[in-house]
Amino acid sequence: MAEAVLGHPAAAPGLSVPFTxxxxxxxxxxxxxxAVAYKGTTVLADFTLAVRPGEIMALIGPSGSGKTTALRVTxxxxxxxxxxxxxxxxxxxxxxxxxxxxxxxxxxxxxxxxMPAYENxxxxxxxxxxxxxxxxEQVAACLRMVGMESFAKRYPRELSGGQQQRVAIARxxxxxxxxxxxxEPLSALDAQIRLTMLEELSRLHRSLPTLTVIYVTHDQTExxxxxxxIGIMRDGRLVALGDCQGLYRRPPNRFAAEFLGRANLLPVTxxxxxxxxxxxxxxxxxxxxxxxxxxxxxxxxxxxxxxxxHDLRLDPPGPSANSLAASVSEVRWKGDLHDxxxxxxxxxxxxxxxxxxxxxxxxxxxxFYFAPEDATLIPEERRG
Length: 384
What we know:
Elements: E1 29-38, E2 41-51, E3 56-60, H1 67-75, E4 82-87, E5 90-91, E6 102-106, H2 117-127, H3 132-145, H4 161-174, E7 179-183, H5 191-207, E8 212-217, H6 220-226, E9 229-234, E10 237-243, H7 244-249, H8 254-259, E11 264-274, E12 279-284, E13 287-292, E14 302-307, E15 322-333, E16 338-344, E17 347-353, E18 365-370, E19 375-378
Parallel strand pairs: 3-8, 3-9, 6-7, 7-8
Antiparallel strand pairs: 1-2, 1-4, 4-5, 9-10, 11-12, 11-14, 12-13, 14-19, 15-16, 15-18, 16-17
């Protein structure tokens, strides 16, 4: 059973913002150079991050990337070998979980099977020796908040997966934590219930705007749907951080581009830049293209051109659109969209669009188009 207590955070646009200084007391959750090792193997390295008060921060990454370890460090279940953790300006690195003001929900619900929903939600309050009148009031309020007030007398075995997860969330909120930690909370649910629960979590946060949430998931759709900002983890390190749209539209590196949504990546060389227009001219093979400028990539450098599948078109989106010729490798109809695969100079690309009345046939040679502002440069060279 994972239940504890945490804090509040404030601004940090980059990856390496130390959680110190005169305004630290106004921040929510801060990690300063946190490192964790198991049996000599480092699983979290130099983790530095400031989470703003009242925001939903999603930590995503593949298995073994360190995201759950970061969450467990926050909760106090794992002690770092170095670095500090702050909550609401208070150093909690050496405090036990129950002293951190956090609520935590895990993927397998962790409800007590011998207790009805009411007693599960009341458990944390009883452990804190709250008055019975307070318990009744807060349990009723939390069950009502998650739409489970009419199921208070039911045992976990009598509830569906989605209902059990709602009870687990109510239990975490009953102790009125500063921070709610969610560790893959929807992974055990089927697709439709997962979508419903995402909507419920979003509604819940709107009703509790001061609650800071850290949401750990490997599901990019969950992160993009729910979070205010996303941190992408790889090999125990934070490799990208930003607001959802910015990180999706302008990924800082290849890993972020490929992990957060599907990405078409082409190796290019930057030929010229125009700071006034915000565009750059790049060369892909023999073709010159106009794309969004990246200040980190200068003329003469190799880079990756990133275009999201939904930004490709079979018709020009405007007079300044870029054009490339490619061979159609496959066409898939998926009900609400068409997925078209292309091959160009041994590179594979994908286009997704609303159902096409006359989709191209496999093997056909076609032109596809994209607007300059929809193409992003990534300052990484082509993999050898």
